[in-house]
């Protein structure tokens, strides 16, 4: 739950938060006319209220900010004039990545989010734009409610093999699994797989996933939600032991492993692909080229996965050339597809924008800090805080502070340094409390104003609850609006934030054997998320070409000696 810790601060008490970041230039205009006593009082308020905001904290009133949508027009005041939403020249379509003409009111974030991002380092390639437009046409033609979809479902329900009519529309159904960061990276990977294989992506939307995102594809009938009457029941219970998993079908000789022998009539009507952290060796054959040629003949593929598997696709001859044409810059995959595919629903977007405009909009620099303590790599809170501060000093992330008498004089100097908003995203409140106290008790060097904010602190990750996922999604996007990012290595939550932001973050290294790592952090070599598992499989007696994967894993291992994903340890965000 989000706690209102302010005590004296009332719900919707917006002016305190606003005054932490005075609008630049307004004071100078008034001084020319003579301000008198009222002006002096205004100056006193402007210099006093930032410290009140810091004292009461960024969590104070957060519940009111996120929930009190009705007061937004009054609360917003002139903030839109100084925030990125009014920035001139923002490209609402991300360089053609998005299609024009969608209903703006149905999905406010689709065309508003470009105004909040500062970094867009890669333009989509012409080949990617053509591929996306082709996909959108195919999705509109094959989506639920269309004749091809109805025929494919009828064949699936009857248990019969695929027909020539089914060849027009093949499908991949994504099944949500694990935390929100895992889900977003898995869904993004599955969408790319659909692009590469000319399939239509549909989502098995569980209750805790429903209402998080807008429909991503244009068209009145182009839903990505799988209807509830889909003939495969209890999809959320599919797992490594399911009879229809590709690994078990291979082990039982119920599907040909030779693409020359497999036909649309001989393969099952659907195959379940278990690609989650606990997949077995036979399941990993999915990453072999010949197996992809077999799976291409299956009308329905059902996928359950909890990590980012795009790097493995580059080492498959079936996809490698197309991937290089789609993404000439390899590190742009998650960045471009994330901005294309994910658009927070209006309810979540309201949470994001209310918090942003209340606490972050007027800062000249926004610093996002995402902290995750994994159960398999824990250290005391004091040690983790020390690691964060050591990293900040090493990479110059958080503003330095001055001690003693210097603080009194520098606290009145506001012109030398940028005003900065530090957003803390963590399940725990400890790090926010300590960082907030640091800037309350000490002035920042150079005299710039510093605000420290944390939207929520759930204390633990809660699976299966929509409100928890809504707040998590809001914080992923708030982090992605940062100018600078410090994230936790191996955290899918951090991966998604930096990919959307278009930033190479600084990443906290993972503790090993209960000790703070040295160095405390490293600069990421890429915006791309790490692949948390090597396929490590023999493809029909021939080893997979692991050159690209080995290079990728080496880059990810550089985040810290303690990263253990290759050993199959389960990771959450």
How would you characterize the overall build of this protein?
- It is built from 21 helices and twelve strands.
- It has 573 residues and is α/β, with parallel strands linked by helices.
- The relative contact order is 0.13.
- Among the domains are: 108-341, no CATH class; 362-405 and 415-526, Rossmann fold (3-Layer(aba) Sandwich).
- Helix content is 38%, strand content 9%.
- Helix 15 (346-360) packs across helix 19 (466-480) and helix 19 (466-480) crosses helix 20 (492-501).
- Mean pLDDT is 81; it is low at 1-57, 66-88 and 560-573.
The helicity comes to 25-40%
Approximate strand percentage: 5-15%
Distance between the termini: 18 Å
Number of E-state strands: 12
How would you summarize what this structure contains?
Helices cover 38% and strands 9% of the residues. With 573 residues, it is α/β, with parallel strands linked by helices.
Helix and strand topology:
Elements: H1 14-19, H2 26-32, H3 36-56, H4 62-67, H5 72-76, H6 108-112, H7 126-142, H8 147-158, E1 170-175, H9 180-197, E2 199-203, H10 246-251, E3 270-274, H11 289-295, E4 300-304, H12 310-313, H13 317-326, H14 333-341, H15 346-360, E5 365-371, H16 381-395, H17 406-410, E6 420-426, H18 430-441, E7 450-453, H19 466-480, E8 484-488, H20 492-501, E9 506-508, E10 521-523, E11 538-539, E12 542-543, H21 547-557
Give descriptors for this structure.
573 residues; alpha/beta; Rossmann fold; 6-stranded mixed sheet; 4-stranded parallel sheet; 21 helices; 12 strands; 38% helix; globular; disordered N terminus; disordered C terminus
